[in-house]
Each structure stands twice: as C-alpha cells, then as structure tokens.
C-alpha cells in the first residue's frame, strides 16, 4: 500500500492497526545518498574503520542525506489459515515546507550516483517531491507546539503601533467603545473592523483583548469583536484546540509511524540495518548523539528488539553453510523460496495488492522481502535445532489431517434411504452455486507452523539468542554491531592485543613506528592498559609480529580470547 | 524545444545553428536551492552586504547548489517578415554518472523550499533525473581526455601477474608463439585467446604488445591477437579516434552549449542574472575564483556582452518612470505587451511550438520572456531618445507601403482586350488552388523595426551604453554589479566616506565604537586612505554624523561625488 501526503492522515489508522496486530515488522529505507566525497569511501575500497570513527561517519551521513522512501511490512500469524499475512506499506518522504510556516528551511544533500541507482528501479521522483510526507523531529515539534500554544491562548506579546497606523487603531477603539455603549453587546452580532493586512489584524487583536470580556475573531477581510457567552467561549476554545491537534498531527507527519513502531516494542527486522537505524533516529527522532554508547542506548530504547537478516546469515553456522558470502537480500529471497525453507507460508493481505508482482528495491517491497526471509530463516534454524519439537507438531498435524479426511469421507458417502437406494440430489442442482459458496466458507489451511520469535516473557531468546540486537558491520575489527553490549573482536589472524602500563598514550603516532612494516592498521581501544591493533591485509602468523620496544607487549588475539 | 539526454547529440546542431544565426540570446536557470541555513539569509530579511562578502556567498552557493534546468532562447531578425523569430530551448541538467566511469562522484545540495517552489510550476523531477543532460567542466574534461588517451594509445602501465594467473599467461604466450611460427600470420584470422574477466583481458593486452607488430583486439568473451597491415592499423587507429571523440563529446555534454554561447561572443541577456552567471561558470566551466576581480575578469572573458533586464528597468530613467519597483519578469512581460511597446514584433519559430501556451518559470520560457522584454525595452528607449530616426523610418515605410498599394491596385485592374471587353478568367478557375499558393509566397511583413543592439563595430554603445555588462544587485551599497569596472556608490543619504591616513586599519572593530549609535552598517573599502560606511536604515542627514576621533574625517557621499 502506497501512502501519499494527501492520504496520510486518512490511512494512518490502517498503519496503526497493522502494527498493533502484528507478530513483528520489517523495515527498509531508500536514501538520497550514502557516500559524500571525503566523507565516505566508495563501498568497493578496502579500508578498516575504528568503531568510533565509523559511527562518526554514519552520524555525518545522517546529517547530510535523507530517507526519501520508507518501507514497513507487518507480519501477522493467521491461525485459521495456518500462515502469515503480510501488510507492506510504502511511504515517500519529503521535507516539504508547505504544511505551515514553522517548517524549518531544510537543506539536504543528494549523491548523483544514488539517484542514478534509483532510476534503475523506476523510482518516481515526482511522487517523492509532490506526494512525499513531511515530518517534524521531537524538538521541532516542541517549537511548533510552543508557537501554536502561544497563538491559541492569545498570549502574543504586544507589538508597537506604527505612527501611520495610530489613526486606524484609534478609530477601531472608538468603534468598539461605541458598540459597548450601544447596549447591543448581549446580542450575537458584535462589531466588525476591516483590516487591510496582517499587521492591522494583529493590532486589532491586541486592542480588543484590553477590553474586559471581549474576543476578537478573525474573518475573511475583517475582524469581528464580540462578547461571548460562557458556552460560546468554551465551544470556541474547543474548536481552537481541535484545530491545533489536527495541525500538530499533520506537522508531525511521518514521524508518527516511527513513534508507533517504537511504542509497539515489537521485533523490527532489517537487512544490513545499521545505517537505516541511524537515519531513522537522526531524521525523525533527534540528531544522533555525540558518542557511540549514547547512540546505542538511544536506539535500543527506541527499538528494543532488532534483528538483521544479513547478520543472521553470517553469524549462524547452519545459515552461513548454506549462503556463504551470498547474503544480498535478493539472493536470500531467491534461496529461501526453495523446499527446505517451505515453512512458514506467507501471503500478502488481499487489501495490499501492490506487490503481487515483484518490485525489488522499492522500500515497501524490500521490507516485505526482508520480513519474509527472516521468518524463513528463523523457522529453518528452529527446525534444525529442535527436530523433536517439529516431529511432535508434524505428528499432531498428521493426526488432525487424518481425522479431517475421515470426516470428509463420511460426509461424501452417498445418502441411502431405508431400502438402500441412493437419495437423488437432483433437486438441489440449481442451488449449486450457493452450495459452493457455503463450502468456501471453510477456510483453507496452509498447514504451516507459527514461528517462535520470543519466549513467554517476550524475550528473543529462543533461536534468536545469538543475533538479537546485532547488525552486520563490514570493514571493522568486529563481526557485528551490538546495540546492547560492547562488541567482541573475534579470532582473526590479522589482530593482536598490545599491552602497556596504564596511562600510556597509545595512538597512531605511537603505533606507526612499531607496526608500519606489517601494513596498514587501525587501533581499537580495549581497556586502560591495552588496545587491539588490526591490520588491513596481514595474513601471516600474528605471533611473529615483534616490536623493538619493551614498553609494549604483544599478545596474539587467539591467546587473548583463550584467557578471557 | 525540450532536449533530453537521449536526444542531446542529435539535437546539438540545431542549438549550434540557432546560436550562429541569432542577433542575441537570453538565458535563465532553475536551481536546486539558493539559501542554505547559515549561508544565505532568506530574501525578505533586510541586510546590507559588503561586495566581497556577497561574492563569497554566491561562490559558496555555486559550490553547493546545482542548475537543474537551463533555458536558452535565441532571437533572430527576419527581414522578409519584418519581425524577430525566437527559438527557445529547455534543457534539464543532471550530473548523471551513467555515461562513463570517469564521472566524478558528485554530491550536491537541495533546499526543500526550492523544490516546493518548483512543484507550483509543475517541474518534472522524473525528467530531471531520468532525462537530464550530464556535463564535465574544463578540468574534468582534461582528466577524461588524459585517461582515454592513455587507453587509446595502448599506453597502460604493466600490472603484476598474479601467481594464480601465471599458467594462464604462459599458455596464452605459447599460443601466440605457435601461431607466429605457423606462418599464418599474414592471413586475416589471427589467434583467439579466451579471457574470463577484465584482469585476464588486461594481461593479454600487455603480453601481446611485447610481440613486435602484433595487436590485441578485444572481442566478446575473448581477445584476438592479429598482425595488422599498415592500412588495417590506420583504420583501426581512426576507428579508435572516432570513438574517443564521440565519448568525449558525450561526456562534455551540456557544457558544449555554454561553450557555443561563449564562443559566439553575442549579447547574452538575463533577468537579475548575476547568480545565474555565477552558477553557469561554476558548474560548467570551472570553480569560481577566490576573489571578486578574478571572477569579473573570467565572466567577462566568457560572456563579453551581457545585459540584465531587471537592471535596465531601474537604471534607465524612462523605464523606471514606467515600471517603478515592479520589475519582476512576469510584470515586465505583461507591461511590455501594451501599445507603447508594440515594436518589434516577435514570433516563435514554427519548429518550436512548446511555448505557444505560456509556461512561466520553465527556464526555456523564462528565457523567451526575458529576451522578448529586452527587445521591447531597447526598442522603446531607442525610439524615445531618437524620435527623428524613427520618423525617418516611419516615413520610409509609409512610402513603401503606398508604392506597394499602387502596384497592387494596378494589378487588380480588370484586364480588357483591345475592344475594351473584360477578358474572362473562367478558364483559370480550376487552377485556383495553385494560384492561392503562389499568392502565399509573398511573405506577410509585420512591419516592425529591427532594434539597434550594437554599433558597426559590434559594441553595445547605442542605447545600451549605460547598462551593458551590469546586473541588478540588491542589498549592497551599489546600484548594480559591474563586470567591467569597479562599481560606483551612488548618492544616497545612508552613506558617508570616512578618510584616514594611508595605512590606518579601518575595519569593523575600528568603526563599531565610532558609528554604533547610527545603527547597523557595513564598510566598503574605497582606496588606501578611505572607506565608505553604509548604514542599513539611517535616513537622516549624513552631514550630521559626527565622530569623537580626529583621525577620521567624515565626508557626506554627495560631497564626495561632486568632487570626483
């Protein structure tokens, strides 16, 4: 389902319902760019990143580039039909300033190559600019609310009256006084004052409120000053409040969807999702914090249960045995259509027909693929690891199916009368159609098995224990990015631990003379008296690395991990 | 005429022809943004700029934002029909990288408000990204040529042979040697070597060239090593050269249009065109130079004859009397449709029907409007200032028209035979159609007068003397921006000259204590011993400004201008 700017408020309840009812959801984003010259290196270039540096680059990217399309796909188990029902939503996002004067003057970057790439997938740039949904971050919303509240409570500061307007103001005041003294103030009519521009309107408002009990109401071309009854004043206040809430919701715009995802606390799946998460937080919630630990805490608080399909395929031995290095989303989608990934059955909800034909790389479809792959992978892992559990399920299903078949056989036995003759059903023949409908009311059951995503307490500790809240992360010393705990450097031959006295400065300037002969490297701090040194292309025995300085002790990574 | 990426090479000759034949041309641009947060202030905010600061902001803008649509309209006097014929071209510009791997990784900024503004004019963002024409600056072209030349002359450096590929290379060398010894080398066939990837292909090239007189030719999936005859070698070289020239032209892309405009040396008209000129130079020719004088020299060298319709309307007293402050392009277009601006008549060329209905704010149409307004304004000025010249022209035209009418009257006199009877032309009646065509061959003359844009030497010193190579420039101390000479500060009551001993430092820190009581101001350096001080809103007598410091002498601007 594609949701445009115009339809957004109207369709939001459908999104809300889908998130409320679902077992989990998957997301995907399309960006206006990823690699700015001098900011990111192109993805093909080999380079190792220190984790903190990497975060800084992602943070900078979120400040420059935009999510221009967001895909959300919810997956809900449907017991009667024995399958998952998917609801994919596709949103174009554009920071339009047409919804109100409070919208900041937003400037963003575009990488021409990113747009070139999007043309290959028929991305609709007109839909993006003309139909893209705007948004406010939390802080921007606060500014909006403060300004609107001030206006609503008629709490605007007085502005000075220009010499040229003094006559206009005096005349208006006189008109109001005349009207008060005319004894008609109890009636509904009030007094109308014509104002030529916004400045004159503002002046009338500030003069009117100086009269006890009078209210100025803006009309087309003039302002009506009236004395409202208590009931009228209440109605007017409510009307203003309603309009304010509507304007606020419209200004918050797409962030509402992110709020709903976050508030649900449900599993959010992505494919190589770290950059997506950075952009979602930075663009819709708040600018990314200064340090990596702060970011982790914030992201984990917003999205407490994340899973990354790309990381799963490299981290889980049963999966990496199947996929090897072929972990692109489309590859996984293709591979998981095979027999061994048959369970569970997944169908699109009939109200979401947009992706009945494939539309790879539209964010909504990519979210659907990601969630589908996730279900297949988790089901496969669970079955592989818990064959007994599935044997029981299978036996149970078989028994049920047999019982059903027996029942069916009984029902299609020819009906015989007392003498053993078949009772003709000819008289029912012209009712065939209605019979067919009745039979259809029995829901077809695809017989697939619901996947255990969480335990009874809602924790992802069934088969997801090793991968939850971790994402893929290439070109660092780490196998993954971990939203909850510090990442661990794995046993790789290009890494050593360098020990030194606590307080010793160990930076690139210190390390360069010691290790330059072994090639390019990065330093990843460990604790107060040690750091990891990871070489970009050193493939020999790290035990052979020697330094000509007694202040530094070298421990091969394997030895370090053994002793932990 | 809208020219897309695919049609560009094919349509370029039409653009070239239009520029070659025209009297002058007008241009317009649409940008991805103008005002970045913290870079430019929004146009409504009052602030004076020092000229050098202003240039720095424009320079920064050209480095951030892009021309995304370019309009060019040529105007050519057509003597037989007594009118100008306009050819408007509209180009979408997008820095795509699909035309070759040499295209830089371009990143640019977009201001959301600028795109919002473009939606109001139905800007087609899909045409922009999918059909926009790419370009290379002069420096980028040099990089392209160097890389391509190296490849063409087979002058690539040898690359090391990977251990894994050593067998492959040995086998290939053996195959070549066998073929040389087989005595078939004179024949056309050559020897084919299958290569699996780009690396293997490269290795074959570098091995083949080690054999005297052999040439390796890339084919689909394999490389053919042959001994070319002298004629074959020449043909091959020519083929390569042709392909190189084609690739080069395609990579230069839209810059070719800018080159053609520049090479023509003809008048280029814009409306409030300074920012356009900055972007044209910065995006298509070379990054804007560090200093304002360098920029002026560069821009004047590229476009030696510029005229700005907005500036004309404020600078020429006869025009400012008519237009006042209403100098927006559409206002001028509307006003110059009135009777007093009847001359000259301007029509679209029949091959350019896109703007027969108006399409304001599409760059091609805005260029057409700008050029049309320009012709009307110049014609009006000329007629107002040289009434005698136009009286002569009018008299001459009247005489010609009378002569023509007499001729026509003579021709429609009934033909009589010797006896005075009319000769019936009945026999000609079935030839009516061909007669009609013959009559049509006489071109209708709109009777408008060609505008004197330049004198016999091509200089713009007829009516354009005061405005040539100047553009409008608001929010500075100057009435205009001048591409040729330093701008003059005009007689305005908010400006004073401050004199001091040569070498005295006179900057904001010096000036602030002296002048803060008169409001915000800027300093515009004049010479070694004086600077202008221009107040943002001081409207009293500048002679009343006093400073408590003998080192600085204050001269009201009027006094300064009188003594010059």
From TrEMBL, chains A, B:
Gene Ontology MF terms: 3'-5'-RNA exonuclease activity; RNA binding
One Pfam entry name: CAF1
Biased composition (Acidic residues): 419-437
Composition-biased stretches (Basic and acidic residues): 401-418
Domain of life (superkingdom): Eukaryota
Region of interest called Disordered, as start-end residue ranges on this chain: 401-437
Family annotation (InterPro entries): CAF1_poly(A)_ribonucleases, R3H_dom_sf, RNase_CAF1, RNaseH-like_sf, RNaseH_sf
Family: Belongs to the CAF1 family.
PANTHER family: POLY A -SPECIFIC RIBONUCLEASE/TARGET OF EGR1, MEMBER 1, POLY(A)-SPECIFIC RIBONUCLEASE PNLDC1
Protein name as annotated: Poly(A)-specific ribonuclease PARN-like
